[in-house]
Design a protein that fits this description.
Layout (H helix, E strand, L loop, with lengths): L8 E2 L2 E2 L8 H16 L12 H17 L2 E4 L5 E5 L2 E6 L2 E4 L6 E4 L7 E5 L1 E2 L13 E2 L1 H4 E3 L5 E12 L2 H6 L4 H18 L3 H5 L3 H19 L3 E12 L5 H70 L1 H17 L22 H13 L1
Antiparallel strand pairs: 1-2, 3-6, 4-5, 4-7, 8-12, 9-10, 11-12, 12-13
Length: 366
């Protein structure tokens, strides 16, 4: 190989002296490097490196090369040993050994670190994501169609860990993107099978559990080596364009539910009272019925008894009945009439015996 000596340019450009570097200087540099390296080379007395020393050098180099196969796996890691790029075995935490590079290499993914993907939302710090976290909304991911043909805006996050490092590394590509795609697909399937009211109210925890189970089943079918820890719904609202109208509808439904509860409470209070009053009236009517029947039966028995006596002595019985009738008629009168027999007396004297009797009773009480 030749180059332009007149311009003092070498194959790598100008020399270090800015154009004054010539071939003699290059020869001197190579000689100096050779002499410097020779001071560290074991030589025989005649100045040449012996075969024994070369073997020693090779053994030392092999020992250093072999020592590069020692590696440590941390407690939060799992070792994956590859031989010429092919998976061989997995190792737990601690010190281990593999054949030196390039024969075997080791990968050490973090298997206890909790990873997170977000769907429908982007936050500045994913480590602090929780319920109610405010972030940038991503409508193309969050808008979903419910089972009753309504649109709902769903933001949620998924926490996952590596369950099997070998499957995680070699069975799927772009692991985080795969988890996100599976999460969005599972949520759309669950939301598509539920009504809007169920999703917005009492169905949140049930939907989270259903999405987690469906994601785990899908990833297991992929052999992804991923364990889904939990799914958290961050926001479940109607689209922003109709959220005010939807809130009005929700308020009306809340009022309707409140009025229904008040009506049911009033009904529960009035109906037992009405039933008690009806039972009381029924019992009073039954008692009156029994008393009337008993009185009628008693009067019938008395009439039968009187009739038997009457049939034996009609005159005496008629006179007795007359007296009893007169006694019953005059028993409630407050005047007593005395009939004095005689031709000379045409005046009927009146004696207020009831008043006298009251005076006597009052004096006895005092």
């Amino acid at each position: 190989m030749s180059w332009d000596n007149n311009n003092n340019n070498g194959p790598w450009g100008k020399g270090p002296s800015g154009g004054n570097f010539d071939n003699n200087d290059l020869d001197k540099l190579i000689t100096n490097l050779k002499n410097s390296f020779g001071r560290f080379s074991p030589k025989s007395p005649n100045g040449k490196v012996s075969k024994k020393n070369w073997v020693l050098i090779v053994l030392i180099a092999l020992a250093i090369w072999g020592a590069t196969g020692v590696y440590r796996v941390q407690p939060d890691e799992q070792g994956i040993v590859l031989r010429f790029g092919e998976y061989i075995r997995s190792t737990s935490d601690g010190l281990h050994y593999h054949l030196p590079f390039p024969i075997e290499t080791v990968l050490k993914p973090k298997v206890t670190r909790e990873n997170q993907v977000e769907v429908g939302i982007r936050t500045s710090s994913q480590a602090a994501v929780g319920r109610g976290t405010v972030g940038r909304d991503v409508p193309e991911e969050s808008l979903m169609l419910t089972g009753d043909e309504n649109i709902v805006d769903v933001d949620f996050s998924v926490q996952w860990v590596i369950n099997d490092a070998a499957d995680f590394l070699f069975n799927i590509e772009n692991q985080e993107s795969t988890v996100k795609a599976v999460a969005e697909s599972a949520m759309r399937e669950i939301v598509g099978g539920a009504d809007l009211e169920q999703i917005l109210t009492q169905g949140r925890e049930r939907n989270e559990s259903a999405v987690r189970d469906l994601m785990q089943k899908t990833l297991d079918e992929y052999g992804a080596g991923i364990l889904i820890r939990r799914v958290q719904l961050q926001k479940v609202d109607p689209p922003s364009a109709v959220i005010d109208a939807f809130r009005d509808v929700q308020a009306a439904r809340a009022d309707q539910e409140r009025l229904r509860n008040e009506a049911e409470a009033y009904s529960n209070r009035i109906i037992p009272a009405a039933r008690g009053e009806a039972a009381q009236l029924t019992e009073a009517a039954a008692a009156y019925k029994n008393s009337v029947i008993a009185d009628a039966e008693g009067q019938a028995s008395r009439f039968n008894a009187i009739y038997e006596e009457y049939s034996k002595a009609p005159e005496v019985t008629r006179y007795r009945m007359y007296l009893e009738t007169i006694e019953r008629v005059y028993a409630g009168m407050d005047k007593i009439i005395i009939d004095q027999s005689g031709e000379s007396s045409n005046v009927v004297p009146y004696l207020p015996l009831d008043q006298l009797q009251k005076k006597q009773d009052n004096g006895a009480n005092q």
